[in-house]
Design a protein that fits this description.
235 residues, mainly alpha, globular
Amino acid sequence: MKTIGVQNTLTSPNAVPEILAILEELYGKADWFPRFSPVEELVQCILSQHTSDTNSLRAFDNLMRRYRTWQAVVDAPTKELADTIRTGGLADSKAPRIQKVLAQIKAEHGDYTLDFLEDLSDAEARKYLLSLPGVGPKTAAIVLCFAMGKPVIPVDTHIFRVAWRLGLIEKRIGEAKAHDALQAQVPPELVFRFHVGLITHGRRICKAITPQCGVCPLTAHCRTYQSITEPSSGS
């Protein structure tokens, strides 16, 4: 196949809304509602690092059943807590991290709550979450977006892959910087829906090893597809 020249990014200001419209026609529109409280979302997100959703949710359920309060989690012997969340993987590092995060929140705000983030700007709320031990850009964005409905877009491996294939971001910037680069292009009112659409597309069609370009409705918007395929002229 012949390579054809394409722009480095999708420069159209309507690119994101157009992509989202196509994704929602395929997958439906996602409506936001809080799955967990902000602190619960934060703990669950720490448990989800480097493991599957199934394993992390099982570990979270085990934690919530065993310990009725966050104080009980903090006071628990660290090994006991690790054994409780063992199904989530990396329990010996996640257990002390969870205890440190909870203890810092309580020490700084007098309770195990993140409700005060509602009164901060998105940037200030994100900065606070990033100050907690072991909390990175993706975890902070998930808490703000999923638990609080703030227009902060989380970038995981699926979002990152689909976004750079489309040409919304450059692959070389990496996932950490992709949060800001992608955030700048998505209108605030579309952040949650765009996140859900992109991650669904990455899981179902735009897969890492074998992207199903033949059935993808986004090829007209996809820089990667256009860069490796020249439309047939019929000759």
